[in-house]
Every structure is written in C-alpha cells, then in structure tokens.
Fold:
Amino acid sequence: MKISARNQLAGTVKRVVPGAVNSEVAIEIGNGIEIVAIITSDSVERLGLAPGKRAHAIVKASDVLVGTD
Structure:
C-alpha cells in the first residue's frame, strides 16, 4: 500500500456495524485502543472489512480535531 499520509495506524478490525449508507468500523491498534471510523457501506464491502482482518487507520493531519478540558 502506497499512500502519502504519514499518520498510519496498523491494527485489526474489531467490529463492523453495518448501515444502509454508512457503516461504523472499529480497528484495534493495540493495548485495547480502538480507532473508530464511519465509512460508506460500499467501501466496507469493497475492502472486505470484517472482524479479524488486518487494516490501517489513516489520519489526514488537516482533518484532526483537537480539544481541551
């Protein structure tokens, strides 16, 4: 896989919650930490995402929100 984004977190799909248009995908990246994304259901099918499959969460730096308490 070649991609320009440098923020890549490898892990394993923990769950997929299907929806009519979008689906929720949780990727466990280690130590019980999960990254959760909402992607199209078509993409879930095209990528063959299912629990146990290896996947990468790719974070584009310009699309990260930062907050404080």
Remarks:
- The mean pLDDT is 94.
- The beta strands are 7-17, 22-30, 33-40, 54-59.
- The chain has one domain: 7-60.
- Residues 41-47 form the longest helix (7 residues).
